[in-house]
Amino acid sequence: MDINIGLGLGDEFDAMIHNAYGTNDVTDHVGRIGLNDDASKFYRLVKEGGQPLYPECKKFSRLSFLVRLCQLKCIHGFSESGFSDLLELIKEVFPHVNLPSSFSAAKGMIKDLGLDYQKIHACPNNCMLFWPENERLENCAKYGTSRWRVVEKKAKARSDANIELASNSKIPAKVMRYFPLKTRLQRMFLSSDFSSSMTWHALSRKKDGRLRHPADEKGWKSMDSKYPKFAAEMRNVRLGLAVDDFNPYGSMNISHSTWPLKELWAVGIETYDARLDNTFKLHTSLLWMISDFPGYGILSDHKWRSDRRRFNGDVEMLSCPDILRGAEVEELLRGYENDFGKPLKRNRGTSDCPWKKKSIFFELPYWSNNMVRHNLDVMHIEKNICDKILGTLLNIGGKTKDNLNARQDLEEMGIKKDLHPVKCDDKHVQISASSFDMIKKEKEIFCSVLMNAKLPYGSASNISRCVQMKERKISGYKSHDAHFILQFLL
Ligand SMILES: [Zn+2]
Hints:
This protein is α+β, with helices and mostly antiparallel strands. It contains 20 helices and 13 strands. Among the domains are: 118-178, no CATH class; 180-203 and 213-292 and 356-376, no CATH class; 379-489, no CATH class. The strands form six sheets. It has a three-stranded parallel beta sheet. Strand 12 (467-468) and strand 13 form a beta hairpin. Helix 1 (11-20) runs antiparallel to helix 4, helix 2 packs antiparallel against helix 3 (37-49) and helix 17 packs across helix 20 (479-489). Zinc ion binds at residues 123, 125, 127-128, 140, 142-143, 145, 341.
């Protein structure tokens, strides 16, 4: 099932500690026989954190107050010493308050609960992580790019005297936040409620052949029949990895996978299940990735196939491509050497291989047997397309897709001559207006239609607030609004 791995110091954390592992629940677990060491430590810490902030305090526990403070620290960027000073002041003014006395002690509490994250420096060009055997490197091993954004002058001057101090004042160029997966998975079973939710797909799901849950779908079922041992333990977890823009596996050189996916598949982790009061070996598989549109070109039997005029002048007669099974993709990529980082020069590629990268997931023993390895996030794609259409219709600089590049493409394909760029002189090129170009007045009418649209209650957020009449722009709408704009308004 899909889970939110990025469980940070947000509302979920607060809610989880309070509702899922509330004081009663914790007291109930003390003395249970099935408890392992990890679980008892966790319950003990939650119990400590669950103490009231001050005697008689009902609203805040020690832990929930600290979490709120940590949130403020993140949002407003308090320094660590500022945070410690604030704690000291609170303790001085309210002597009965039950709080640790420094930032490091507060952080330690959260860390012991296994809910913190690690910061790992990365090359700004995405070639590599400075981790773990590269942890001490100062420059990217591939292009020599500095690991630091700014090397402060002061730090430079100090560096001869005190290297340790100097490195503390440098700002890393790129930071990856890594949420340890194993502890997060274990924590999910420490609450009876959570644990029930984790097995909902097996115990409570309606199985009438309709598609409602990923478990109703072919890919899930085919994995179950191929790996019956994995499927037999209903508490095993199927992961979905959602990626947007940043793909730690596609562009980072990680010879050892960041998340211990291989180990979680082959060995598993000892996990205490609060619902059944026993420990079991929890295994996980990566079921699929969810990403945005990677550029699938042709849909079979589409009317555009015979549309010569709008495309390259030919009728498309080829049948739709066969769906490649994972094993076939793997075969085509046998021996493929990945070249990480953004290429410094734009390279259209000379080899016959259609791919630019070999996914690290092929190292997972089951990945090539996985039927649906990738999913597309349709709402996200629709939002992107809506952005592009509005940008093009309203001819918003930098946003319109009817730009010089597009016109040069038409020229290269030799179609739509009247839209080809025209040379004015040696330096300047002009592009003519398109049939859909609007004058100022027309743009205003267009915007006012969106602005004044009356929508059924709850169908979309207030789109009118996203219309900037003066600039004749539309921005700041959410993906659901984009769906509404595309499907109904346009
Ligand atoms: Zn690099």
